[in-house]
Amino acid sequence: MKFFVDTADVDAIRELNDLGFVDGVTTNPSLIAKSGRDILEVTKEICEMVEGPVSAEVVATDYAQMIEEGRKLAEIAPNIAVKVPLTLDGLRACKTLSGEGKMVNVTLCFSANQALLAAKAGATFISPFIGRLDDINLDGLELIADIRQIYDNYGFETQILAASIRSANHMSDCAKIGADVATAPPAVIKAMANHVLTDKGLAAFLADAEKAGIKIV
Ligand code: E4P
Fold first, then answer.
1. CATH number of the domain residue 52 falls in
2. What is the pLDDT of residues 152-163, one digit of tens each?
3. Whose CA is nearest to atom 9 of ligand 1?
4. What's the total number of domains in the chain?
5. How far is the CA of 25 from the centre of ligand 1 (A)?
6. Which atom of ligand 1 lies at the shortest distance from residue 83's CA?
7. Angle between helices 88-99 and 112-120 (to 10 degrees)
8. I want to staple 174 with a disulfide (CB 3.0 to 4.6 A). Which of 66, 159, 162, 215 is the partner?
9. Which residues lie across from 85 on neighbouring strands?
């Protein structure tokens, strides 16, 4: 499973990139607003830092303007994935932009039917939001499993990009189901390394090493 980092914070991306955990980046208008930076400028900086796909989202809602914005975003760098919302205009824009050879990430997916339409529209990525479904007592992981089954039934090449991830457990659950990609905030990706028995075991090893005077260099 590929790891995308869900942030527009360049320092956080750099830190995870240095750790080798960044296969791509996802942003959205809320994350760009949180960064306090100009969308074109911060997205360019991220694209220079990361080799994999960097999703940048349009803010228009009608087809013609989405195309105009999508083309402008795609000019930033070859690794841009234009992010469009899962609306009829967004799906039409997905088809056009994909036809031009651009990567397209169809976002705000909350049902298997929506994911089926995105695949038919030639999306590179479909972003089902699991955390937001869990927030309203629906089962986000069940949606990932349903999409996996549908895409496998017909050999759709659209990649399932599990989004709105809230915990480290979501990451392993998505990997078990077979999501192609999971995008998570930096803190969630780092939290995957945590285990209380690792901390306890390391403390005991270090205490024994000190007692025995073990020195390596
Ligand atoms: C994905 O592309 C979205 O930017 C993101 O995962 C949304 O997450 P949230 O529901 O925690 O805002």
1. 3.20.20.70
2. 999 999 999 999
3. 164
4. 1
5. 12
6. 2
7. 30
8. 162
9. 107
